[in-house]
Design a protein that fits this description.
The chain is α/β, with parallel strands linked by helices and 389 residues long. The protein folds into three domains: 170 residues, Aconitase, domain 3 (2-Layer Sandwich), CATH 3.30.499; 93 residues, no CATH class; 116 residues, Aconitase, domain 3 (2-Layer Sandwich). The protein is globular. The structure holds FE3-S4 cluster (F3S). The site of FE3-S4 cluster (F3S) has 14 residues, from strand 10 and helix 14.
């Protein structure tokens, strides 16, 4: 990979050990992927920040010096910063998690701790280059916003943040954003169906970018696209998709020869398991303001003054919770807890449950792997609320 004079100096260690290490990571990744050069990025999003997953490896982050060169955000950590003791997090975990957070903050990374950085502050624009980890956000940025990022890992996203650049390969290049497979959906899709659809697509398409053809009456909302993105990212290895007639690059792409069809029965199967859930969790990815409003309306319609009978958690970004304070207060009046900075999967606080009801395809994939052997069951949002009473 070609380096400029300035990049050579950093690589040689003339700007200190931290930037040298960051440059070494970027060069190694660039060389493996035959990148020709580094390109500037507008923002970075760093994952792997929960103490539950990073453990003592955070000492490495602590040893880094200097500050990030572009706006950089963090994925959810292992606890709600303000209410960790109320959700059963131990003092020992909280101390460690606070140290992890401080290590990232010291580098100038915004401690917003959410997987929906595109809902806060500045939304990436079409064609902008980013270095984001967190698969759900990568798929959303590439597919729905038309921004350009590869599926970064925690070290490469952090290295890109420290240098302000990323290797030019993969989804940064127009020719690699062409679809390789058509996915024809033969039934109308709504709400958690997008989680089921994404789960299926991720499993079926391998590393081929899909172009999805929905029925004329399926018009996904931004939140449904968020769920579709998260589920494809959870089961698949592609970093983007197109939806014919909807996503910003879909008009300029060709028609792949390979085709798969998704029937009503394929989606319906996701709802068939009958196990009784002992907890309900919504907000994977973190809930938007509109979703909070919608859940409140469902609670009001179903609850009629009653409190929920099962543990019920909603996960969102702190800034969204603050923006929606009044609605959050009303939601919590039903004994539902609105939690920030963390989520069901990355926090150890939720490992005590046996079966979780959710509208998220990503939780369907990760709860059985990362939450103490619990099961996850898919439900439409309305059904999640109904089953809580
Ligand atoms: Fe976000 Fe946690 Fe889901 S990081 S996408 S809420 S697993």
């Amino acid at each position: 990979m070609h380096l400029t004079k300035e990049e050579e100096r950093i690589y040689g260690g003339e700007e200190g050990w931290t930037k040298k290490k960051a440059m070494e990571i970027l060069v190694a990744i660039g060389d493996i992927n035959s990148a020709s050069k580094l390109i500037p990025i507008k923002s970075a999003h760093v994952s792997g920040v929960s103490y539950k997953t990073i453990g003592e490896a955070f000492e490495f982050i602590n040893s880094l010096e200097g500050t990030v060169k572009v706006k950089s955000t963090l994925n959810p950590i292992g606890m709600d910063i303000e209410r960790w003791d109320k959700i059963g997090i131990s003092g020992e975990f909280a101390t460690k998690q606070t140290e992890v957070l401080a290590a990232y903050k010291k580098l100038g990374i915004t401690a917003e701790c959410t997987c929906v950085p595109y809902l806060l502050g500045r939304m990436p624009k079409m064609g902008e280059h980013l270095a984001w980890a967190e698969s759900s956000a990568v798929l959303y940025a590439n597919s729905v916003l038309g921004a350009r990022t590869n599926m970064e890992g925690a070290p490469s996203a952090l290295a890109a943040a420290l240098i302000g650049k990323t290797p030019f390969y993969g989804l940064h290049q127009t020719e690699n954003r062409e679809p390789g497979i058509r996915v024809c959906v033969k039934c109308d899709i709504v709400d958690a169906d997008y989680s089921a659809l994404g789960f299926l697509i991720g499993n079926l398409v391998g590393n081929k970018i899909p172009v999805i053809e929905l029925t004329s009456s399926s018009l996904p909302s931004k939140d449904e696209l968020k769920h579709l993105s998260a589920a494809i990212g959870a089961t698949g290895s592609v970093g983007m998709y197109h939806i014919r007639g909807l996503t910003p690059e879909a008009d300029a792409i060709g028609v792949p020869a390979e085709k798969i069809e998704i029937e009503k029965g394929d989606v319906k199967k996701f709802y068939e398991e009958n196990e009784e859930a002992d907890v309900i969790a919504i907000g994977c990815p973190h809930c938007s303001s509109l979703e909070l409003q919608h859940i409140y309306e469902l609670l009001r319609a179903e609850g009629k003054g009653r409190k929920v009978k099962k543990d019920f958690f909603i996960f969102t970004a702190r800034a969204i919770k603050q923006r929606m304070q009044e609605v959050v207060k009303k939601i919590e009046n039903y004994s539902v807890k609105v939690i920030c900075d963390t989520c069901f999967v990355v926090s150890p606080a939720f490992e005590r449950y046996r079966c979780v009801l959710t509208n998220s395809g990503k939780m369907l994939r990760y709860v059985p792997l990362l939450c103490g052997g619990a099961k996850a069951k898919l439900c439409k949002t309305e059904e999640c609320v109904r089953k809580a009473f």
